[in-house]
Amino acid sequence: MFKNTLLMLSFLLVFSTVMGQKRIDAIQFRGVKNLDEGFTKKRLYSTEGSLVDAVKIEKDLMLLHRLAVVAKADYVLEEASENTVVLVFTIVENSTLIPDVNFWTVGGKLSGKVGLYQHNFLNRNILLGGFYQYNGKHSYGATVKHPYLFTAKMGLQATFLSWTSDEPLYFGEHSASYEYKNKSVELLGLYQKDQSNSFALGLNFFNEKYQYLNGADAVLEKPLSLDVNKYMLKFNYEFSNVRYDYFLQNGIANSLYIQSVVANKSTSQDAFYIFWNDFKYFKTLNDKLNLAFRFRAGLATNKKSPFSPFVLDNHENIRGVGDRIDRGSGTLVLNSECRYTVFNTSKYSVQGVGFVDFGAWRKPGGSLKDFTETDNMKLYPGLGLRFIHKRIFNAVFRIDYGIGISKNASRGLVFGIGQYF
What we know:
By secondary structure, the chain is mainly beta. It is built from three helices and 22 strands.
C-alpha cells in the first residue's frame, strides 16, 4: 500500500512539474551576421514546440561555442504568452577569415609561409583553406572540412599536402641531416555523436622520400636514400565538455589517436602502429585566473630506427628545448600553465603565463624503463605572454621563454599562434 502511494505521489509530482513548464514558441538568434540561422536551428537540442529544458539549452550553448564563428553565446527566455516563451540566443561573432603569415631566417636567408583559411565557409562551419611555404624548398597544402555534408551528424574532410624540409635523424649520439619530402592525400569520415563526442576514421595515401645531405660520418650503416609509398589508417576520438567565456576555459577534454602505417609490398618495411592520447583539464578560478594542464602519453612500434615518430620539439611538447632535437618510440609529457589576465577590453586581452613542461622519452628500440632514466627526461619552467583578439577566431599570438634546469640544458623563445594547448 505504501509503495503504491509513493509511486502515485511521484507520478503526480512529475506530472505537475511538466504541466507547469512552458513551451518554446520560437527560437531566435541575436547579434548574428555570418551564422546560417536555419542551418544552426536544425542542430540544436531545443526545438520549437517542445518544453523548456535547461539541460538541452546548456547542451545548445556548448554546441554553439564549438562553432568557429561564435566568440560567446548566452540565452534569455522571453514571454510570448501565458504558456509559451521565445528562446533567444545572443551571439557575439568571431571573424573567421584568418590569414596565416610567418617569416623567419635560416642561415641568413629569408623564409616565409603564407596561407588563408575560412572557418565558416558558406556560413555553415565549413573549413576551407591552404598555404604555401618557402624556406629554400617549396611546400604547399589545402584542406576542406564539412562536418555536416551528409547529415546533421556526418561529414567529410579532405586534405592534400606536398611538404619538403630538412630533417635531423639520430643514430645514437650522432645526427645527420636529410632532405625529407612527403606528398599525401587524406580522406576522413566525420561523425559527431553529440555536443561532446566526435569520431573520425579514414585513410591517408602518401609517398615519403629521404635523401642524405650531411652528418653522422662515423655511422657507416646509415641509409643514403629512401623512397616508399605508404598508406595510413587513422582513427580519432574527441571528447570535450569545456565551456568557454571568450578565451577563458573550464572543463575537461580528451583526444585519442590510433594510426597504422603500411608500406607497399615492394619494400621490406613492416606495418607500423602509433597511439597517443591527450588529456586536458582547465579550471577558471575567477575572471582573471585560468589553470590549464595537458598530459600526453604515446607509444609506437618499438624499432631501433632513426625514423621514430615522437619528436622532442619546442612547438610540440617542451618549450625552450630546441627544434626536433631527438626522437623516440614512446613519450610521456605533462604541460601545466597558470594564465593570468593582465589587460582586458571588449575586443582585446593580454595574459601573462607561467608554465612548467616535463617530458620523458623511450629511446628507439628501448624499454619502458627508459621513462625513468634521468637522461631521457626534460624539465623546463618558463614565462610567456598571450596577445588576444576576442573577435577573431583563434587570434592568440603566443610568446614563451623556457629554461632547462638540468646540466647544460638549453633555453629559448618560442613563438606561435593559438594557445600552446
